[in-house]
Amino acid sequence: MNKLNMKINIAGIELKNPVMTASGTFGSGKEYSDYVDLNRLGAVVVKGISMKPWKGNSSPRIAETYGGMLNSVGLQNPGIEVLIKEDIPFLRQYDTKIIVNIAGKTVEEYCQVAERLGEADIDMIELNISCPNVKEGGVCFGTDPFMAEHVTKAVKKVAKQPLIVKLTPNVTDIVSIAKGAVAGGADALSMINTLLGMAIDINKRKPILANIVGGLSGPAIKPVAIRMVHEVAKAVDVPIIGMGGIMNGDDAIEFMLAGATGVAVGMANFTSPTATIEVVDGIEKYMKKHGFSSIDEIRKSLQY
Ligand SMILES: Cc1cc2nc3c(=O)[nH]c(=O)nc-3n(C[C@H](O)[C@H](O)[C@H](O)COP(=O)(O)O)c2cc1C
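Above: the input record for the complex with flavin mononucleotide. Below: its predicted structure, written as tokens.
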């Protein structure tokens, strides 16, 4: 058997393996570094960052559900300058790629964050287009193909690093949004973000989340994510980073068979802080067992 090669390449950036952290579930790595050897990860994707600090939503903002959780954290973050000053130098001590997830309320804000990151020592930008566009009256950039193309094009123009566009599943036709992002110049896509959900406390007869609705993540959303990755992989020609309910190596392999090049671990970090490492080991074990020598081979091996 050839030597096991777990490397992947996204827009010219080589990752030692396909396993990343899903934005918002791993902080900026510091919080997990006592449990996880960050050197073993393909990339750390940091929490969503905006130009100015954002307070986030009121509590309660987390609710447990069957096979998952709801969150309405609301993109709380300390702003780009704190990330550049404190988090990036911390992560640079490790041999892992750094991907910064960016948030904005307007196209201009996304562009400002991307521009500022041009001077930062990071490897890629992930554009989260699931948040409301206040100027346009509460429409999500990620739910309209033309808006997706427009914001991607604007950010691509100012970004120095390769651009990943992160898609929301809260749409009727994810393929049209993916095509919009690719038309706008996305170097890669990541999917999926959380599914809009709601939970009610039947004794209090009140919604559990202060925000009433929140984003569902975890194993409950995996079949939706697999279906969407499979549909999009057949329709576009850029690498896909798959996520949504990955708990172990087998889940990650399922995403690759659906067409993903890379994978990200989200909610599992909360239930098992070492989940990312278990996923790396699980993928390696599967490759050995089934005689695969590259991630590319797995991705192309789905039988119908
Ligand atoms: C608490 C929490 C915070 C999140 N924050 C962000 C964020 O800032 N930006 C983003 O693009 N996605 C964010 N996400 C979505 C995750 O990155 C991921 O797409 C989603 O949770 C699906 O993966 P999972 O089922 O493995 O958690 C967040 C998810 C959770 C649970």
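Notes for the reader.
The radius of gyration is 18 Å.
Residues 275-290 form the longest helix (16 residues).
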